[in-house]
Specification:
4-stranded antiparallel beta sheet; alpha+beta; 368 residues; 29% helix; 20% strand
């Protein structure tokens, strides 16, 4: 009976899924499979009856055959070739004076290809390096640049917790980690505390992020003032492990309540405040309330009085202001200007040409 098995081609590599087909396969067995790069030798690490979500049943291919003694001997020889190629490549990097750091070398099972993993701050021109490697090993050479996280995964290191890094032990894919996760988990934003060996944020911050998100959905926002059965309280902090909330009461005392008690307190707000459980940012109970008086209705005037007021308003709009009236009077009293001679515009005066001053040049001394 065929089963879906998970294979690893390297100790810290990603898990790939294949169909066992007609072969009887046990855990930790070595099998030969067909890949896009040729034949590969993988180790069985898990069994599953369900197809992973990211794959379709058509994408899962059957294994080629079980590994024999010759395949195991070839695998050991490839390991020795990879170690020797690592030392030789580092020597070439020094000779060509390239700013790159070689991390690891991988040799395929049929030696049809060799992959050199390296890190570098910038792009590297390694064409001459590839030519020297091809002359030495007579196979396809690939230089693959990786990041600092993959470098730590390949080399391995001891983390801040005192154990081997998670990426080396069991992680196969890197999940995105943001500084927002550290803030939601109430951690000190100290780079030395929340960063790993690789210099990036700790991968373990994403392990408990789902639990923190579900807990914060039932908690009020930190810093808010809310009317409860204890009166107006301010939320100071939350604690996931205790499932509690720390509050600051009106008397200045800090009180810690469980999540169940908080829901009961928020459901029964105090009657002294008129907010009825609504969140308040800057409201204070002791401040006096300001009551606005409603405007009194204006008395109705008789019809004749309304008509008279409308006429006065119209006349006031039509009459110009006092300063404008005086200006119009001065213009009317001024005598008219005399007409110009001939009724034509006087031609402009011709511009005087400036005389150019010539400076006498000194005679050049003769050569004789």
């Amino acid at each position: 009976m065929s089963r879906i098995i998970g294979l690893k081609f390297r100790e810290y590599g990603q898990v790939y899924y294949f169909d066992s087909g007609a072969f009887v396969v046990n855990k930790n067995d070595l099998v030969i499979v067909n890949t896009d790069q040729g034949l590969g030798l993988g180790e069985v690490v898990l069994f599953t009856d369900e197809v992973p979500e990211e794959l379709n049943l058509e994408d899962i291919k059957p294994i080629y055959r079980l590994a024999n003694d010759e395949d195991i001997v070839a695998h050991r020889e490839n390991t020795e070739v990879a170690e020797e190629a690592f030392r030789y490549c580092r020597l070439l990097v020094r000779q060509h004076e390239l700013e790159m750091k070689l991390v690891d070398v991988e040799v395929y099972h049929d030696r049809g290809k060799m992959v050199f993993y390296f890190t570098a701050p910038n792009r590297i021109d390694f064409r001459e390096l590839v030519k020297d490697l091809v002359k030495k090993y007579r196979t396809r050479i690939e230089l693959r640049q990786i990041g600092v996280r993959h470098e730590t995964q390949m080399i391995g290191a001891v983390g801040n917790c005192g154990q081997m890094c998670c990426c080396r032990r069991f992680m196969r894919k890197f999940a995105p980690v943001t500084i927002k996760m550290a803030k939601e988990q109430n951690l000190f934003l100290n780079p030395t505390k929340i960063s790993g060996i690789c210099g990036r944020l700790l991968c373990c911050l994403s392990f408990e992020q789902e639990s923190y998100e579900s807990f914060h959905r039932h908690c009020p926002k930190i810093g808010k003032k809310i009317n409860t059965s204890l009166g107006m309280v301010k939320v100071l902090r939350t604690n996931l492990f205790r499932e509690s909330i720390s509050l600051l009461t009106e008397t200045g005392e800090e009180q810690e309540v469980s999540l169940t008690e908080w829901k009961e307190m928020a459901a029964k707000p105090s009657k002294r405040s008129g907010t009825d459980g609504i969140e308040a940012n800057d409201t204070k109970q002791d401040e006096p309330r300001i009551r606005l008086k409603t405007p009194e209705p204006t008395p109705e005037l008789p019809k004749s009085q309304d008509v008279k007021d409308a006429k006065d308003t119209k006349e006031a709009k039509d009459t110009p202001p006092k300063g404008k009236r005086e200006k119009d009077k001065r213009r009317a009293a001024a005598p008219p200007r005399p007409p110009r001679e001939g009724g034509k515009k006087t031609p402009p005066k011709p511009r005087r040409k400036r005389k150019r001053k010539f400076k006498p040049t000194k005679p050049k001394p003769s050569d004789g």
